[in-house]
Amino acid sequence: MKGLIVLVVLSMLCGFGTSKECTNTPTQLSSHTFRYALLSSENETWKEEMFAHYHLTPTDDSAWANLLPRKILREEDEYSWAMMYKNLKSPLKSSGNFLKEVSLHNVRLDPSSIHWQAQQTNLEYLLMLDVDSLVWSFRKTAGLSTPGTAYGGWEAPNCELRGHFVGHYLSASAQMWASTHNDILEKQMSAVVSALSSCQEKMGSGYLSAFPSELFDRFEAIKPVWAPYYTIHKILAGLLDQYTFADNAQALKMVKWMVDYFYNRVRNVITNFSVERHYQSLNEETGGMNDVLYKLFSITGDPKHLVLAHLFDKPCFLGLLAVQNGSLSRTRTEGEDVGGRLKTYQVSTPIHTSLSVIGAQMRYEITGDPLYKDIGTFFMDIVNSSHSYATGGTSVSEFWSDPKRLASTLQTENEESCTTYNMLKVSRHLFRWTKEMAYADYYERALTNGVLGIQRGTEPGVMIYMLPQHPGSSKGKSYHGWGTLYDTFWCCYGTGIESFSKLGDSIYFEEEGEAPGLYIIQYISSSLDWKSGQIMINQKVDPVVSSDPYLRVTFTFSPNKGSSQASTLNLRIPVWTHLDGATATINSQSLAIPAPGSFLSVNREWSSGDKLSLQLPISLRTEAIQDDRHQYASIQAILYGPYLLAGHTSGDWNLKAGSAGSLSDSITPIPASYNEQLVSFSQDSGNSTFVLTNSNQSITMEEHPKSGTDACLQATFRIVFNDSSSSKVLGINDVIDKSVMLEPFDLPGMLLVQQGKDSSLAVTNSAADDGSSIFHVVLGLDGKDGTVSLESGSQEGCYIYSGVNYKSGQSMKLSCKLGSSDPGFNQGASFIKILDLDENSDDRTEYASVQAILYGPCLLAGRATSDWDIKNVSADSLSEWITPISPAHNDHLVTFSQRSRHCTSFWINSNTGSGNNSPLHSIFMCF
Ligand SMILES: [Zn+2]
After folding, report:
1. What are the tens digits of pLDDT across the range 841-854?
2. Which of 411, 525, 668, 801 has the highest CB neighbour count under 10 A?
3. 337 CA to middle of ligand 1, Å?
4. Which class would CATH give 513-620?
5. What 8-state DSSP symbol labels residue 466?
6. pTM given for the model
7. What's the CA-to-centroid distance between 625 and ligand 1, angstroms?
8. Any idea which fold 118-499 has?
9. Quick check: 230 and 341 in contact, CB under 8 A?
10. Domain extents for the chain?
11. Buried-exposed string 301-318: b where 16+ CB fall within 10 A, e elsewhere
């Protein structure tokens, strides 16, 4: 009842009086996760109940009416298609004075960059997708034969959203083709377009979808259906990208025919019912229909395409944004992908209007109507100032919550990743129009912290839906968790494969003028073949590490033959750096650097000997969460330059680390050399392999963990040398006969200690004077190659010991050889030292024949029907046995590289300022 009162008061305040509300379906239905669960449920009563109020209240177009005098549809025209057509079909003139994107065809990421690695992982996934499986439901719908099997998840033959991922695939593969020119991918994506074309031909009406057109009958009749235009938008956008990036003329033809079909459908709704009825049907999510139609119009100039685009601009939502209505900031909003599948809901009312901000932005680019520029700007400002986490991401369980109240939203279902994808598009448009640094800063933040981490390392096709923000939450542990290769295909998979296909985008933007200009807004190792500047630019960025707090970038140049053209480079000086220690040089000559948040402009006739270098200090800083309640002021993010640091601790999330002003007193870099001192110890027992593990500060043997798990961390120790001349542990010889201490990786500053003969081992706070933490590493007592035993430094002849034939959880103790009655003593005291649990290295002689074959830095993968045992190959005559395949077959070779892309970390110490700090937590960034 209270909610009702609030609703009435609000609606009066907002000036809509007693007129119809801008409203829509109950909020729950607008969550894709919920909709999928509902539609795949067997519980008919639940479904009936949930759909009972579907589109109960009609959409209000009074907000739109408030936009006079810009209003395009006069009331008397609303029911007349002919009049409407006449009024809508002529665009205003666009000013067109925007920064231009550079073609993905001309940008190449450098293989040393994490961005290239992410792109490569995605390329591998795209190549794993099968043409027949992708188009299975399209063929079924067209009544064609269906070889192969259909994919699962949201692409399954009974899912109403099926086909959406295929649209994303067409966009992703087109962009990936431009980014890599991978020929196999080109063949695959062309085969998908051809197969879809056959389906469209077979149906004969222009309609093309993986589900029957009956879903649109329901859509137009305002009956429950799951977002059919959302999926149609993906397919249109995908086909258009195939035309734009890969010159596929057939794809453009298909788009035009499809649009003819939907143009007729919308016209029929408006002529047979009313434009209101059409707008009412738009309450069911329609994705970025306006966006793709404006793009199509920019290619075809066909007024029909413009009219249809206008008809997908949603008055209900855009109207509110256009009048910068204060109540927007009281909305709950869900954001999703491409054309701006972002929806808003008022807190106290079940209001839903699907919005197409990105489409509105395209409208501004096409028509120049400044109203649509304001819509995008206002929208971005609201989201950026009141709804964004430190990652640049937004949303809670697919909705937006109260503005500046984010502290109580930190949970596992935060930041739907396709929302971040969308916000990047919005900010990219705004940067191109305004050159305002804030949009470039946002782009870097959201791409770095909200996109790069949604892949699981270098595993192709494993991505997340949500990026949890809850303290102590692993990003893989949310309702959806990690997706699978062929059985999830969530919305975020669609945008995920697009994100990682266009990482070369938005690094460089061009400015036309007397002398060509280039804006460089991201520092990512890459090269640009800058056509209008007639020059090849190479950008090289040193990997950022905690122990060297600078971003170092070097640009080198190769002008085209005969070119003698001056051009201007505008280099972004990010807001997160400071001038103290910043340098910019050109051929060792210093340049003055402007304040952070502006551009360093260098005009020059570039020559091949030129070298432009930037060195920008990176510092640690904290950032308060967007929450204006006093009691949450202490919830802070820790950032290192553009990187948000993630934390690992045994449970205490309350850091008493001093004031933000003295952050560097309490947070110190972990020396880079420590990365080379990490080891694990394993031992076989029965048929299993076990590893020495820190289990809540007692030491046990546990089953060999899967990589990427917490158990992996707990089984990793750092070798702390007593002798300062040693530092690296690259092989067994680096530790044999050395006195060492063992520091659990997950408890920095603590040490493994023995507590006396036949007593269990423990992990304690600091090195005791009695030498109980010192162990002498000796050759394995079992006499086998590659094993080690750990002898107590203070109790000679006593070793870390497990017994034999034990099970998981075996407690470890110190046991002395002399006096031991165990015949298996030597075996139980011998371990295999593993350098890195993720590396699968193995120093057992029986596995000596397991070999990798490398060609330069590239690990070669093998293909065989079943026999993995290659015989008669000796290492020194490798070239006799392995011969190059002719270049025509090179397309079939793939490379795999290291699992982790890049990590660097810090410690957080327990005390501030005093000399004797011991680290309690480690924080890190990893991709
Ligand atoms: Zn999503």
Report:
1. 444 555 666 666 66
2. 801
3. 7
4. mainly beta
5. B
6. 0.80
7. 23
8. Glycosyltransferase (1.50.10)
9. yes
10. 118-499, 513-620, 672-834
11. ebebbbbbbbbbbbbbbb
CA of 724 to the centre of ligand 1 (A): 51
Quote the DSSP letter at residue 217. Answer: H
- Output the CA 454–ligand 1 centroid distance in Å: 12
Of the candidates 832, 825, 650, 824, the one whose C-alpha atom is nearest the C-alpha of residue 749 is: 650
- Helix, strand and coil content of the chain, in percent to the nearest 5, comes to 35, 20, 45
User: Ligand 1: distance of its center to the CA of 748 in Å?
Assistant: 37
Distance 44 CA to ligand 1 centre (A): 26
Q: What is the pLDDT of residues 567-619, one digit of tens each?
A: 999 999 999 999 999 999 999 999 999 999 999 999 999 999 999 999 999 99
Q: Is the CB of residue 905 less than 8 Å from the CB of residue 748?
A: no
Cα angle 233, 239, 244 (rounded to 5 degrees) comes to 120
Residues in CB range of 132: below 8 A, 6 or more apart: 146, 147, 148, 149
Burial of 214 (0-12, 13-18, 19+ CB in 10 A): exposed
Residue 490 Cα to ligand 1 midpoint, Å, equals 6
- Scanning 490-645, the segments in alpha helix (DSSP H) are 491-499
Helices (H), 204-288: 214-220, 228-246, 249-272, 275-281
Span from the CA of 493 to the centroid of ligand 1 (angstroms): 7
Ligand 1 centre from 492 Cα, in Å?
4
CA of 416 to the centre of ligand 1 (A): 5
Record: fold of 672-834: Trefoil (Acidic Fibroblast Growth Factor, subunit A) (2.80.10)
Single-letter amino acid, residue 656: K
Determine the Cα–Cα distance for residues 542 and 841; give it in Å rounded to an integer: 28
How many angstroms separate the alpha carbon of residue 189 from the centre of ligand 1? 23
